[in-house]
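Morning!

This is the sequence you dropped in the shared folder:
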Amino acid sequence: MRARWIASVILGAGVASGLVGCATPPDIDYDPNFNFASATKFRVADQPVARVDDPRLDSPLLNQRIHAAIVGVLRERGYSIVEQGADLDVVFSIGSRLKVDSSGPQMSVGFGRYGTSGGVGVGYSTPARVESYQEGVLTIDMVKPEANALIWRGSTSRRLPEGGSTPEKTTQNVNEVVAEILKSYPPGKK
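The structure's back. Tokens below.
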């Protein structure tokens, strides 16, 4: 009976630790009736600077980086950027939200063996940890210009850095997030 209890504790601890750090895929939605193969020319709409009272997001420099990342990904896939006559308007928005992360009591189990002797050790910690943090949200929309109709939307969020970021690191993070969102565009393409 004791061995079964220990095995269930170990299995439960293994599953819980496997979930920590898993990235959530972007939220994607689109119009399944739209012929995405017909849209080959795009323009990125001018974006007002976000006003979310967070200097990490309220920045024309961040808008420029997002704009450049979108253009880079779409051009790499063979789409043409145009000033007029676009098949798609690409519109992005930035937001933030407060998130709370908490963890309750934790338990760990260890096994040891020395010669013919063996043992089991169990550790348990009781203080709960509660932490709040800001999460940035980037949403990219593809809009059919003449109808002003949304045909595709991708959105994801990331924890905002607490400080010490550099322009290079910010650019790298923006490029990663934009590529992650646009990985699913157009629908059906792997």
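Headline: Confidence is low (pLDDT under 50) at residues 1-22.

More detail when I'm at my desk.
O.
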